[in-house]
Automatic annotation (TrEMBL):
This is alpha,alpha-trehalose-phosphate synthase (UDP-forming). One of its GO terms (biological process) is trehalose biosynthetic process. It comes from the Eukaryota. Its EC number is 2.4.1.15. It comes from Paeonia suffruticosa (Tree peony). One of its GO terms (molecular function) is trehalose-phosphatase activity. In the C-terminal section; belongs to the trehalose phosphatase family. In the N-terminal section; belongs to the glycosyltransferase 20 family. GO terms for cellular component: cytosol.
Amino acid sequence: FEWLDGRPSKQRLLVVANRLPVSAIRKGEDSWQLEVSVGGLVTALLGVKEFEARWIGWAGVNVPDEIGQRALTKALAEKRCIPVFLDEEIVHQYYNGYCNNILWPLFHYLGLPQEDRLATTRSFQSQFDAYKKANQMFADVVNEHYEEGDVVWCHDYHLMFLPKCLKEYNSKMKVGWFLHTPFPSSEIHRTLPSRSDLLRSVLCADLVGFHTYDYARHFVSACTRILGLEGTPEGVEDQGRLTRVAAFPIGIDSDRFIRALEVPQVQEHIKELTERFAGRKVMLGVDRLDMIKGIPQKILAFEKFLEENPSWRDKVVLLQIAVPTRTDVPEYQKLTSQVHEIVGRINGRFGTLTAVPIHHLDRSLDFHALCALYAVTDVALVTSLRDGMNLVSYEFVACQDSKKGVLILSEFAGAAQSLGAGAILVNPWNITEVASSIGQALNMLPEEREKRHRHNFVHVTTHTAQEWAETFVSELNDTVVEAQLRTTQ
Ligand code: ADP
Ligand code: F6P
């Protein structure tokens, strides 16, 4: 990953995100192994190269002792990463609790977890206190490493309290905040007991960014309706101070995927997969095993397709690669068992002694294996119930320039706004509709596939992660200059 290797600087950038791009595994008292973390934020930011960047975040592991902390800090420094050490209790309350059990489902319109809704409501205040405390710990580390002129770019729903903490340290710090999830309708946001505190803190940033115009609009509405502030075409105004709010749709480092397809190891892998699935069309799902990804709904739609189309039963296979994520949160544990149960039932129902219709893997694939899989796929199925953007759909398109496969894409993913014209858009809650889209995709004529693919390929290769980051940072610089001009006038 070039991002982590260092390069000549244009501008110093401090990227602050809950998760570092590498996760640490302890190998001994003072030795650590680093592995690339999985997730959209990491994928996008690793594609950003034109800054002298440092990444501040949590290494995904509890390190209670000083020897371990010192050794890990040193190992991470080689990757231009700076750790924030969070103890087990904070991780439990802040990350598992407030971030993943409250904000995450709410921002994706899924409501609080059904079974323990009352318990969640009761623990709300202590979890929010832990959230604020964790955000303050991130701010302390940023402040320690900050140099005048740095751009501080805060990411995601884990760090909504950070802009406020940073500006309290230094009101002149250039602070941007970007959300990688949807921002929900203000009617959803207003159910949060901490609704105003979160909004007020985010408004301390100079520039606030979202993947789509709709999310930005929801945020501005929340500020006007909940805080009574004024929304303008530029953003939100509070007593003469403007916070710029805008849409900055993210992308991927498409060249990296396209180049990977030329690597001999990937070509070999493509050959193996093509032989392995000869005579069958390959359908693919690649997701974190997350409640928002609509994995059970996707599998049920595939079952319906097989049920209604007996002639396809031994001619199509669904490969679902689902890397486990947030495994300490009960809702995620339930999802894993649910998916296993459904896959087992369908394979029992439609499998033969020599083949099963669904291959489900609970793991992450390395980059080259993933590119090979994308390249051999005939139909990709992205059925998120809600998704900030969804970069898997972009990665699939980048790897499909020879095959020109079809993308079935949820209308509730941010990517529907950019890849909608090339994809078959579906409502993932409507299993009948998804099943019939599978038929449409499998039967699509080559000219139609070519036309749809071309549209998406041009988008994915021109709206890259690099362009996204440059636009955001340059807009942040301009916003700060404009604000200074306004105050001196
Ligand atoms: P999210 O931000 O919710 O994680 P995205 O679709 O935007 O969703 O990004 C997911 C990223 O994680 C992509 O870069 C994808 O390649 C990677 N990823 C997801 N599942 C797997 C997996 N099973 N193996 C390897 N990488 C994965
Ligand atoms: O896109 C949302 C997000 O929370 C990102 O911040 C992150 O890349 C991804 O999901 C993975 O989540 P986690 O860091 O909780 O494993």
